[in-house]
Amino acid sequence: MDISSKITTKDLKEKKEVVEEPENGRDASTNGNAYEKNREQEADYDVDKEEEEKGREEEEEEEECNSISVFSVQLRSIQTEKTHCLPKPVTFLAFEDALGIAMVCLALCFFFLTVIILGIFMKHQDTPIVKANNQALTFVLLISLLPCFLCSFLFIGHPNTVTCLLQQITFGLVFTVVVSTVLTKTITVILAFNAMKPGRTMRRLLLSGAFNSVIPICSLTQMIICGIWLGISPPFIDIDSHSEPRNLLMVCNKSSVTAFFCVLGYLGFLALGSFTEAFLARNLSDTFNEAKFLTFSMLVFCRVWVTFVPVYHSTKEKFMVAMEVFSILASSAGILGCIFVPKCYIILIRPYENSWKALKTKRDST
């Protein structure tokens, strides 16, 4: 019994092992198949994902192409049909520009130079060179030159209605005072010389001071011209889109070119009259004869503004405004330099000639 039972138990174990081995083989084969299926599914998923990404990229490229084509079509329609406005930068002669900074520096330099010369003349107001040829007119001329340099600031910066109205009016009135003062000084030189000759007419005119009415009369005439200009066709802000295709130029339109040249022509008429009288009186025998200096100053003034007219019409953009500012500064500086710099040279460098004793000695020698 024991032997047979042992045999049977051995046989059963062997059979179990034999049965278990094919079952384990089946499990391994099934596990391998499942792994392969998972690998295949993952590969299919990656392929699908790549295809989706490619499809998205293609869609984005198509959208970009469509947007570019739509924009080009819109741009063509804008250019051909002119149904839309493309924004353009607005430009003007600003204080921050290099050209604007240069003009401002020039104006300030000449302004302070005029102030210094005015201080020198006030300090030496009792000397012969300052008292010669009407001391009061000398101070009027120096004081009127100050706003001439300052009025150039009205042409620089962002234009507005007030500056557009003040630009040409201030320029016309201030320069009328300056040129009419030079004209009055020229008349004074002629009257002072002719008063020494026999006869009472010139002496009466000199003593009466009737020539001093030249300044208010000339200024009133210019005010009437400017008033007519403002009443009929005042200046206004304008956008110039033709001078530069890519930019919009903001300028003060003079509105009436005829009125502007009437103001400029009246100044030229006064300057030409002053130049003619000063030229005729340049050889008068006077110790401190200003006629030569007045002649040169009016020659510079006329030369600047005669050159201004063709150059102004040939320039574009902000250079047109800069040309007008430069003409204002150059003509004012010409008057200041030609009339007052030689006198300052005698006052500061050669003071021995600026005394009553030297004046008397010079008269006795002649």
UniProtKB/TrEMBL annotation:
Membrane-topology annotation of the record: Multi-pass membrane protein
Gene Ontology molecular function terms on file: G protein-coupled receptor activity
Record keywords: Cell membrane, G-protein coupled receptor, Glycoprotein, Membrane, Receptor, Transducer, Transmembrane, Transmembrane helix
Compositionally biased region (Basic and acidic residues): 8-26
Record-given protein name: Vomeronasal type-2 receptor 26
Organism: Tupaia chinensis
Ranges that cross the membrane: 98-122, 134-157, 169-193, 214-237, 257-281, 293-313, 325-348
Family statement: Belongs to the pro/parathymosin family.
